[in-house]
Every structure is written in structure tokens, then in C-alpha cells.
Amino acid sequence: MSYPVQYCTEEVIKEMKERFIKTLKVQSQNEKIFKMICPKDKGCNPENVNITCSEASPRVRRSLRISDAHAAKFYELETLKYSPSDTRYRRFLQPDVHPVLKISFSLELHTNESDTTEEKPNEENIIDELNKEPESLLTYMNEKVSGNVKDVYNLTSVPSPEINYQIMAVCSIGQIRVRNSCLNCPAGTFKDDVTESCKECPTATYQDKEKSLSCLPCPKGYTTYSIMSKSSEDCKAPCLPGTYSNTTFEPCLACPFHTYQEYSGRKDCRKCSHGLYTSRVGSNSSSDCAYPCNPGSYSDSGLKPCIVCPVGSYQDEAQQNYCKICPPGKSSETSGSNSVEECKEIDICQVSQPCPNMSTCIHTEDGYKCLCPEGLLGHHCEINIDECASDPCFNGGTCTDGIGDYICSCPEGFSGHQCEININDCKQGSCENGGTCIDLINDYKCECVPGYSGQHCEINTYECASNPCHNGGICFDKLNSYKCCCQAGFGGENCELKVDPADPCDHINCLNGGTCVSNGSESSCSCALGFRGEFCEENIDDCSDYTCYNGGICIDGVENATCHCSLRFTGKRCEEDAVPEYTLSFMKQTTSNFVKLETQRLMHAITVSFFMRSNYKNDKSRATPVSFSYYNKKERKLVDNALTVLDINRIVLFLHGELIHTGYVANKDSNWHHYAVTWEGSKGEWNFYVDGEIVVNGLQTGKKKFFWPGVFVLGQEQDSLGGTFSVSEAFVGNITEFNVWDQYMSEDQIKQLSASCGFVGNVIPWFTALRHIYGSILVEKNEFCRDIGACNEEDCNCFYSNKSSDYICSHIVSTCNPNPCAHNQSCIFNGEDFFCNCSSGFQGQYCEYDVDECLENQGGCSHGCVNDIGTYYCTCPEDMVLSKDSSICKDTKYCQENQRIFTDGESWLDSCHNCSCIQGEIYCAEILCSPIICQPEENMVSLPGDCCPKCVLWSFCLISPNSSMTSFDLSQYEFLNDCTHTLLEDCINGLFKVQFSSVKNYSRKALIIYYECLKIEITHSGSILMDNETLELPFMDTSVSINSDNHSIDIWTHSGLHVQWYANGEILIAVPTHMSKHMCGVCGNFQSYNIIKPGKYNFYGTSDEEDCYLLGEDYLLGEDYTDNFAQNCRPSLAFLMTIFIIFYSCFVGP
Known about the structure:
CATH class of the domain at 579-792: Mainly Beta
Strand content: 25-35%
Helix content: under 10%
Distance between the termini: 110 Å
CATH topology of the domain at 579-792: Jelly Rolls
Number of strands: 95
CATH architecture of the domain at 579-792: Sandwich
Radius of gyration: 64 Å
Shape: extended
């Protein structure tokens, strides 16, 4: 598009380009042609825009090249470019000459590749469409661009530019253009881009697809019969050797008899030389041509090499593959017969003896037959069966074939007819120290238990070689491990941890509220009052020094004792005569007058009985003669109206907190009246009596409940346990004969109580009230009881009764037949009364109430308590079990005995008893000694900690006063300089270590024994130190005993180590012989146990780096002795005069 303008600058060109691109982008979203040019899914942008200035008329070529329906289209406008600085530009400033603004752009046209077949446009439709659309496009663009020109140049109008365009098709790959259309190159051809034409595929190639740029080659050696092949099946293979064809390619024919072809791809076959023949068609070598077999012989092919006909047969023709059998009864005398005339009537077995190899010849009608021995076959038994063909020899054995048999020559390590047996190379003692021998082929290997190595498991790994113990800890080698004995203040497996001194109380469990007290080294339990014992486990029997008089029975408690008195006595120790008859007078309404009576038992039933007189009338008062309250420990709450007789104006009864209106007026007169309340918990049945008659009763009140131990108060209503009184509820009047029983009395029994005085309650007897009076209550003679009389000696619960037990009175029944007692309890007749004999788990007249022992003090259980019918049992949390008393829970992870703690499963010896910790309990069994008889070379000894003597065969190591030494195997050594040597070390169990300071000046010699982390030192002066503290002798515990006299110091250990230090300077070390082979150190002579200690041996010198020497019978021993020497340093007679010096480093011992 070209527009004449007044001027043209770079700024104008830039602004016009930006406006044009913006217009083109907006349009591409609206017009149909633009959707083809720049669809959204292609992500294209119309950026190829060029704007220039020109002085000439617009020379515009518009072309649109079209390819197939899937390719892009281009729309190009070509213009001449002018620079504003060009001299020709100045002419545009003349009045008649104007510069021309030219806009050129190219567009890419797309069709929708996802169009369906019906909607997809073909090329003709595209061309038609493009013939229509560009005109409208350019018209639209002219409108938009003209507006841009107006805006830029501030013009009112702009002449329309001249529009010319051309449409051209651009073909895709593999197509050629024909008359403005694109055609695909067909199969069998390819597109030649040079000639822009389709070319035929040459021979040996093919192309099975259209629009191809090349042809595909046939496999190597294959070809096609013609050009333009369209399939790989047109590729044919050349004829193979032994075949031919006119084309030299498939299909091919086999070479006929007596011809051959050695090469591939041939049109004919070659004939065999004169007189030679082939045995088959398709021969591919001249070697297949051979002479025919002569008469009297044959072969499978009829050609040479040939086999002569055997005796009894003939062949009269040439080139045959068999022999003819002689007529019946005839046979040839020799092999190779070529005529039937040679077959004669003879006994061939006698004449020719044709059966070799010890076979048997049998004459037959048609000749003979050979019977072959085992291992041979064939007509003449000429074939030896190869028994080695089946490879019968195992494990690499070599087979030698025989006749009917074979022989296997076995390699070393195997035996048997077929070498099937692996000779067991393991012999007894092949592997030491518990190693397992594994048989190999002509060899064996030892699988060692952990801690041992070497070909025969003869080497114990020395785990202390790396000095694993830190901070001065002493290392003890063990089997496959080590043990560190740490200095004070350090701990951990390698003494690597700095630890505070252990609190002795950490593992002490003081019982029954006791407290552990420690001084840092020792501990003890400070017991709560009422307990004693090392762990406060014993409840002090307070009855041991507490006397109950007048037949009273002492009941032990915790830090207290109480007396259960007989009916006629009272007082703390039953020392007072009981006063059965008296009256209490509450003279005025005040909170200070009351009687407080405590109960000590759970009650499943109750009977409250008393006489009362009061004519006190006050409408504002609710005078209360009796109230009972208790604390429910299970529900943890106070029940302040458990049983209350309230308001004498019109009595209100409370039972277990339930309010019951009786309607009875108790202050209607000034006479004495008897009142009683009965209740039982199984049905919640209750009765309120006045003068022996039921006033009101009911059921379901407090069912399944019971009365906890609590407080009865006479004269006040309680709002707290035994207190919080109100003046308006204070009683005014007289009370006598107040008794409480833990049974549900019958109506007849209540009538008896209302008719006389002198009855005594088994929970609260009336005579005990005298000692619990508070305030100004008057105690007066009971004139009323004198009037009505007292109970007699035949009555139960009577103060004057001669009944032997109040228990019998509480459980009397009418008969024992049938047994009325519940829960299978026994019924007893004592000659006077029938009564139920309840076990401790039941209560009630008929033993009908199960006692919940867990309610009071949790049944004495330290943790959990579970009630059961008639009994209870204690439970423990996880990881705890009941102790033998079935009450206290113990931790199952450990047991405690005195101040010693043992882990679960641990066993130990205690005073000649084998003890074990099992689930928190200690079980011990006495050790019984059997009689023993020692061999002459043995000694009978009793070692520390042993309960029974044993027979021991000893091995000795001796150090003489002159510092020479004799080891266990009697080898001699001499300590040459001042060093501290390890004489002995238990390298299996790590129990002990013995070190010796070999000082030339004997007065400075010393011996140190480490035994189970206990350090025992004998100084040059003969003093004995244990853990650096002077030890008083004799000393004995379960592991070590030390004694001394004027001549020697004797040290014995439980493991069998025995050390004697003599005053003359001699030192004797002895261990049981069976242990000596496990000993490392100088006494072990560095051998027998063959211990490997890389680097430095665990010897200690008197300085950091001082060479230590031992002069042996054959060697001077020193640093870095070799493994060979470590395994075999016994003196050798072959080297008696040899001095072998090996240095080893020696460090200062602890």
C-alpha cells in the first residue's frame, strides 16, 4: 500500500509500523481470512512488516503461494526503500512532487488441520477463497491504515492506494506443481528436487510410499527384476551354491545328479569329471564327485569309500548301498563276494570262524549269527560299546573304557567307582576352640565362633589392642569382646563418659511411705511411723507392747492399737466396767451439746435403736435427735444425711440422702417412746418403728449401697462430717439406750428391743456414749429402765447375756435344715443356737452380703484392687507383678535384695544358694554338695564363693627372687631391666589380669592384680592395697579371699586364680590347667593360645618409651615380635645358641 504524503521521516515510519502491526493483530482475531493466517493455537504474530518512502509510483507485487491443505500460505508485498536523507527525497518537497509512503507485509496462511473430511477445504476452494478475501482484507486494511496516516500527518483525507496481487501455489515435500496444482510422487518413484520431477526407483531398490524423496535399498546381495518396484517383496535373493536359475536369482533349481555348483548366483551347474558321480542333487562342491563302489562292496551313497560285503553276502553290481544275502543254507567263505556263485553250502562257523572278540557263532539257515558278549555289538561283534560315552565319572574323574565296563581315575579328594565320594578331610581336632569343620575337595576349612580366627580357629582376636578404654580405664580382653573397668567418675562402655557418682538410692525401693537416705556411698530407708525393716516392709506389731484388759482383744493398726472389749467392759484398754443404764439430758437448744460416736466398718445393713422423751415445742425449730454422715471414698463425696431422724415436730427420715416424711409427731407428750430404723442394701428395704410398731416402710431406697464408716451425732444435724451444726436443729429432751447393729433386725427383734433395756449394739453400744459427750449434757440415772426392766442372760445382744459371742447373736438363724446361709456358707449348731458361719468375704445374718474389700484402703493393694464374690485380689500395672504377699507390686525388670539390684533373669550365688530374679521375685534353692574323690595329681580346694569343694589340677608360673621366671610350659626367662609386664591375662572371659614390676632392686618390686574391676596391689613392703586403700586382713567376700602370715600372702579368687607372695621374694601364680591354655601374657609364654596383638603387646614400662627385655633360653625377647614368633616361641634345640632380638614397646601401667 502506497500513500502520497508531504514528508517521510524515521519517526513517522516507526510510528506507522507500530500502528499497522497493532491493527493487523486486532484484525487477526475477527476476520475469517485472518483466522487462517494466524490461528491462536499456532501462536503466530504478524511481525514481518516493512515501511519505506519512495519517489516513484507504487510498484507492488502481491503474491500468494499455496501448498497443500496442511501447509502455510504467504502473502508478500514488495516495495522500494528510500531514506529520508536521499537527494530524491528533496524533490518530494516541491509543490508538484510528493513522497510516497509504502507499506509492505507478508502473511502466513494456515488451514485447520483438525477439520473433518467434510469441512476440510481442497486446494481449489482455498484458491477461490483467497481470490475473494484479499480484496476485502486490503479494503479493510486501507480503511484502518488510512486512518493511521491521517492521524500521523494530521490530514482530513488520504487517496486510496493501488492494490495488485497474485496467487501462487507452493508445494510441500514429495510433491510437484502441475498447472498451479500439487501432485504427489507415486509409490515406486521419488521426488528429484533438482529437476522438480518424479524419478523411477532403479533396480535393487523400491519405494512403497508416496511423496518420498528417495528409494529404499534391497538387502545386501538382493535385487529386483525391474525398476519402479513398490514392495520389499520385489527384492529377490541370488541362487545359493548347489542351485542355479536363468536369472541367477530366485526361484532356483538344485543341481542334478553328477553335477555341482560351488558359487552363488549362477545360471548353470558343472559336471563331474569322467567316471565320477554324485550321490544326491544340489551338490555344492567338487568333492561330492566320487568313484562308484565296485561289485562286492557298498556304502550308504554307493560311492567310495566303500565297505566290502561280509561273509554270507555278496554284491554283483557297482554303485550299491547294500549287500545281497546268500540264498538259504548257503554262505560265502570270505568277505567281498561279488557273485551269487560264491555262496556255497558250508558251516561258516567252522570254516571261517567269522565271529571275533570272544563272540559265539551260531549256524543258521541263511548263514550264521554272532552272539556278542556284554559290551560288544554289531553283526560280527566288531563294535565295542563305549561305556565312557555317558560320562559316568563324577567330580572330574577320567574314564577309561573297557569291554562291558569302565574304570574311573579319581582326582585327589574323591573315591568310589564313579568318583562319587568326597573324602571327608575333617578329622577330630581339625578346628580348635569350638570351630566347625567344613569338608572341601581334598581340603577343609574351619568356621570359627566369633572372637577366633586362623586356619584352625587357633587365634583369639585381642580386642584390647586398640586401647579402647579411655580416661585410665583398664581393658580386659574377652571372647569376641572386651570389658573396661573405669576409674571413679567415669562410665560408659569405653569409660568415655564423665559421670556423677551414683546415688545409692537410685535402686532402693523403700516401701510403705519410707524414704531413702544416702550419704553418697551408703543408703538406708527412713521408715514412716508404724513400719520398720531394711526397706520398711514390716508393719510394727503395736499389740506386742499394748495390753487389753478384761479379756479384750488387741487389734494391730498402723502406729496404733485398739482393744475390742467384751460386753461388760469399756475404755481404751477395756479397763473400765461398762455402765449399761443411764440417761442423757439435753437441757437447752444449743450447738455445743452433742455426742459424737464414730463407726469403723462398712455396713450392708443397719439397725438403729433408742429411747427418746421430749415435749419441746417450737414451730421454728427442727430438733434432731440422731444424724449420721459419712464420706463416700469411691465417689469421693460427703453424704451428710446418710441416716437422720429430723424434726420431732413431725419426724422426717433421711436414708442415703433420700427424704422420707413419716408424719409421726414425737413431742406430743412427755413419755418415753422407743424408736428404731432398719435398712438392708440388697433390696433397699427399710422400716421406721415407734414403740415396736412399723409407722412407715418401703423398698428401693439405697439399693445396692452401704454405709461407709462415719459419724453418728446425738442431738445435732450434721452439715459436714461430724460437725457444722445449726441451733434451730439442736435437740432438747432425753435419750437413752442408743445402739447400732450392722444387721437388719426383724419386727420381733425390734419389739424385744422396745420392751426392755440393757441391749448392746455390735457397732455402737450405748455404754460407749459416756466417753464421747460434748457440752453441758446431763448424765442421769435411768429410772425409766428400772421401771420396764432389763434383758436377761438368755437374750442375744444383752449386756447381761451369757452368750459366748456377739458374732453368734448377729448370725442366729432358726434352723440349719435346709441351710439358709447364702454363698454356700456353712450353717452351724453349737448345742444351743443355729447360726451362719460366714467367711471373711461375706457379712449379714445369712452371709448374704459380699464384702468389697477394695473399698477400704484398697484392700491393702499397692496398686490395683479387684473385688470378687467372697474375696478380692490385687493387680499390677504392666511390667510389674505381685510379690509373695500378694499385695505389693514389684517391678518385673529387677529384683532387690538388701542393697543389691538384680535384673530380670539374672542368677547369682547367695550363701550357698542358687538364686534367680524371675519377674521381680527372688527364688533361691540350697546347693547340695556331692561327695568327690580327687585324682592323685589333683588338689581339693574350696574357692571363694563356692559352696562345695572341687578337684583342681594346677598349672604354675614361678618368679624367683633373682627375677628369673618359669612359665606354664616350664620355659625359662629372665627380666633384664625395669619394666611392668603383664604376667597373666584371661583373654576369654576377661576376669583378671596380673602385672609385675620387674625392678632389679627387689625392694621396689610390686604385683598388681585386677579381678573383675577390683584392683589389688601388693607393694614391695608386703602391704596390700585394694582400690588404692590399705586393706585389713584377713579379707573375704564371694569372689576374693586374702590371708597372710609371717611367711606369705595368699590370694584366692572364685575363678581359680591363686597368687602367693613370699617374704623371700618368690611369687607363685597358679591357675587350673584347663584355663592355662587361655592365658595371655609372659606366664603363657606368648604361645599355646596364639593370640594376635597388632603393634604393641599390653606390657607397661616405667617410662613412656622404654625398651623391655626378657632373656629366654633361646631368645632375647623385645618389641614387635612377629606373628610366627607369637604362635611358636618355644625354645628350639636347633637354635640353642641363637639370640633373636625382638623389641616391643612397654608403657607405664596404671
